[in-house]
């Protein structure tokens, strides 16, 4: 579904990604874990077209997307839920969801998508006229996810959905990621909360200062001594 090869990204003189390669197969939940500054967000932004790599290639559903603009990549089936949620604060819940569907023209199916999302997140339905900026952190995370799902993606990229949320909400969000995945959406999940991420993922990559240092089955990595020491406390 998604294949990344030898990705190199610089911010000026800072070499943020140093030859990163990984892949996500159809139907999987794959997680990229790593400490602050390891390059997780940079990786997602490069894959989704917000940053351009100096070297390397990215392909989505066997089409090369290296250097393709972000909105075109969205149209090709990849949606991103950004770090810190970043919903449109001055718009209502309903309007935020509408924004997620802006590339779609299939009116009847769009209605169906609203219904699906409101079914998945009843809280959003109750509050569909509320301004997004006045929602709680957990509600905003659900809205950001709902907005991304409104584009009907084949693959969903999620940047640290657990950030700033109470453990009970983190559990709820992660349960939703599993549910969305079961309904056929492939997931690439970037997380600092390695324990939660590894417990729902099929496979995982460990990122340290712009390089993948370990990869494997997520459940096996949960029991890996180096991972336990460095990321699971
Ligand atoms: P966090 O979990 O803290 O968000 P991360 O793993 O997502 O961390 P990135 O945000 O991808 O890490 O950062 C990777 C490296 O690139 C860091 O050293 C960071 O300081 C640097 N970096 C990120 N954005 C920029 C930028 N706009 N300009 C310069 N350096 C940057």
UniProtKB/TrEMBL annotation:
Positions of the ABC transporter domain: 2-232
GO BP term (any one): L-amino acid transport
Keyword NAD attributed: no
One Pfam entry name: ABC_tran
Keywords: Amino-acid transport, ATP-binding, Nucleotide-binding, Transport
Family: Belongs to the ABC transporter superfamily.
Name of the protein described by the UniProt record: Leucine/isoleucine/valine transporter subunit ATP-binding component of ABC superfamily
Native source organism of the sequence: Petrocella atlantisensis
Source lineage: Bacteria, Bacillati, Bacillota, Clostridia, Lachnospirales
């Amino acid at each position: 579904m998604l294949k990344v090869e030898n990705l190199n990204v610089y911010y000026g003189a800072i070499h943020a990604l140093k030859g990163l390669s990984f892949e996500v197969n159809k139907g999987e939940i794959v997680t990229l874990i790593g400490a602050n500054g390891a390059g997780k967000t940079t990786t997602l932004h490069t894959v989704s077209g917000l940053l351009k790599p100096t070297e390397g290639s990215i392909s989505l559903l066997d089409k090369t997307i290296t250097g393709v603009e972000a909105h075109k990549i969205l149209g090709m089936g990849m949606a991103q839920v950004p770090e810190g949620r970043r919903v449109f604060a001055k718009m209502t819940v309903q309007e935020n969801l509408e924004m997620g569907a802006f590339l779609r023209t299939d009116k009847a199916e769009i209605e169906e998508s609203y219904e699906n999302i409101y079914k998945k997140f009843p809280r959003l339905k109750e509050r569909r006229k509320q301004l997004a900026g006045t929602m709680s952190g957990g509600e905003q995370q659900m809205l950001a996810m709902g907005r991304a799902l409104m584009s009907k993606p084949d693959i969903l990229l999620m940047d640290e959905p657990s950030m700033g949320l109470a453990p009970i909400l983190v559990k709820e969000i992660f349960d939703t990621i599993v549910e969305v995945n079961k309904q056929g959406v492939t997931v690439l999940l970037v997380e600092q909360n390695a324990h939660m991420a590894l417990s729902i993922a099929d496979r995982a990559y460990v990122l340290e200062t712009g390089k993948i240092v370990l990869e494997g089955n997520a459940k096996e990595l949960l029991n890996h001594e180096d991972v336990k020491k460095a990321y699971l406390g």
